[in-house]
């Protein structure tokens, strides 16, 4: 037997309070759907949520702190650690100081330090955030 889809029925199932004076439809009790729409739109991890509220001062202005320490002058892009402000080079760079910093410190989230970019990346969950 086909059950016709009634517009608004899902909402009614949620909104109907126990005390609501409503005629009981045979077979309808306990048939409320289990799918919850609208809850899966932005599931960013706790690290990204926490990091979005932080704005640490960058450890350097001109470039990768790790590269500066070893005299390296080549890197692709820069990342800013949202925990401590460490500026490190990305994984496309020869030295990959941003990843190294995460491994050494456990600081989970970096933010792009490139002009005009503001995305974040969580190493723990390999998740992109904004
Ligand atoms: Zn995370
Ligand atoms: Zn570097
Ligand atoms: Zn850090």
String of helices and strands: HHHEEHEEE
**Main sheet makeup:** 5 strands, antiparallel
Task: Write out the strand line-up for the largest beta sheet, numbering strands in chain order.
Answer: 2-1-3-4-5
Low-confidence region ranges: 28-34, 36-41
Bound molecules: zinc ion
What does this structure look like?
Residues 25-62 are annotated as: Disordered. This is UBP-type domain-containing protein. It comes from Saccharopolyspora halophila. The protein is α+β, with helices and mostly antiparallel strands. The protein has a domain at 46-129: Herpes Virus-1 (2-Layer Sandwich), CATH 3.30.40. The protein has helices at 9-15, 46-51, 65-70, 97-105, and strands spanning 78-81, 87-89, 109-112, 120-122, 127-129. The protein has a 5-stranded antiparallel beta sheet. Strand 3 and strand 4 (120-122) form a beta hairpin. One zinc ion binds at residues 64, 66-67, 72, 75, 88-89, 93, 95, 97.
Question: Which secondary structure elements does this structure contain, and how are they paired or packed?
Answer:
Blueprint: H1 9-15, H2 46-51, H3 65-70, E1 78-81, E2 87-89, H4 97-105, E3 109-112, E4 120-122, E5 127-129
The structure holds zinc ion (ZN) (3 copies).
Task: Produce a short descriptive summary.
The chain has 130 residues and is an alpha+beta fold.
């Amino acid at each position: 037997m086909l059950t016709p889809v009634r517009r608004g029925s899902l909402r009614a199932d949620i909104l109907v309070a126990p005390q609501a004076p409503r005629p009981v439809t045979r077979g309808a009790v306990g048939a409320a759907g289990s799918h919850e729409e609208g809850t899966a739109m932005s599931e960013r991890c706790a690290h990204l949520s926490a990091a979005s509220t932080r704005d640490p001062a960058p450890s350097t202005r001109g470039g990768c702190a790790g590269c500066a320490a070893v005299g390296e002058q080549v890197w692709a892009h820069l990342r800013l650690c949202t925990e401590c402000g460490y500026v490190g080079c990305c994984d496309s760079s020869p030295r990959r100081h941003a990843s190294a910093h995460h491994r050494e410190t456990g600081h989970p989230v970096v933010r792009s330090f490139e002009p005009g970019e503001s995305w974040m990346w969580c190493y723990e969950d390999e998740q992109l955030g904004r």
